[in-house]
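Protocol step 4 of 6: structure prediction from sequence.
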Amino acid sequence: MNRRRVAAAVAIASVSALASVAVATTARAAAGCQVDYRVSSQWAGGFTAALTIRNLGDPINGWRLGWTFPAGQSITQSWGFTANPASGAVVATSADYTAAIGTGSSVEVGFNGTWAGSNPVPTAFTLNGTACTGSTAPPTTTRPPGTTPPATTPPATTTPATTPPATPPVTTPPAGAPTVAKDGSGQYTTVQAALDAVPANNTTRRVITVKAGTYREIVTVTKPYVTLQGLGSAAGQTVIVNNHSNAGGYGTSNSATVFVKARDFIATNLTMSNDYGEGSQAVAVNVNGDRATFNNVRFLGNQDTLLVNNYRHYFVNSYVEGTVDFIFGGASAVFHNSTIYEKRSTGGPITAANTDASLTYGILFYKSTITGAANNVTQLGRPWGPAAQVLFRECTLSATIRNAQPWTDMSENSWKNARFFEYRNTGSGAGTNGNRPQMSDATAANHTPQKYLSGTDGWNPVL
């Protein structure tokens, strides 16, 4: 599809998800800096947290945030920073897109972590050596007796209970699994070589483990039942990247770095990226195989980052960034407990759905976080096809959302004729008005992740 690209700007990242098991906790600075630490969801052995770092002193061109984790707590995956060490006396340093914080400005970053025994808040925040002092309170795991659940939690009859999944183990590959390593220590030096070695008529799960590193190649999956599993300590350590683009003569759909053309594909603990930059559509991943699952995967790009082309796809604990229409296509796709980030300071539409009129389900964002580089500029989507179907359900919408008009037209397709809805969203970007259709409770009962993905074979990958 032909769509205009506009320049991107310096971005921030955040991660959080709604869950009744946790409430916000805060550490506030007396001078120099202010840090808000929020545990947004937790489950057995794991949790998701977000940090808002506000600079009250001189402008900072690179920041270093320190804090102390109790024994048993550790960062396993981060957005917007790197942590070394990731446990104990943690030192978090800014990634390139969150490096600068002006006076009075803030950045939002986040992470997944593990905990043992209990999940208390960290202590002793410092920003570039300046103490960020203040009181903290441990997260509440149960509501006081007799209290009414918040409006963001749907009735039990509306949504089947789902528990946010922990990041899958990545350090111990299955016995006999092929290993890809650029340094020659594995069976293959490229991901494609390992995929090519899978039998053409494969009928059993084949797990291909990929050592940490950057793999600049085009990857095409044509064999069913294949798993790509990154072996780094975080998804950002194993990167598959290339820079094909529509402007380079490939066309939009053929510009992808990764093509998934077979059924029952799984990817975990990886980054899939197109680093072409600005100026043209450039796809990171083109998913065109049924029953694809992506767990703890980062999708990086600008315009048209992720093409959910056809069939059914499930994205969980993942991160998608871009500028324009960066989640687009005609699939039935669910984004669960994930972070969606608009990179461009002038905003743009997140989705460009092309759902066929015969399909009930298009793209669902469920208990995910929507954030961006600037406030009141990001649109939830526009209709690539006239029957486009998109639902943002129980999501945290940050101030990046264009509150008054979060949906927009595309070519001759009017957003008002598309099937665009919100349901029980929260956050500063949430709201209701004549331009923000809200789904009813009765209809929402049939718009769960399981409903979007079940098809005629009852597929249920929801964790």
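Step 5 (inspection) to follow. The CA atoms of residues 110 and 228 lie 25 Å apart.
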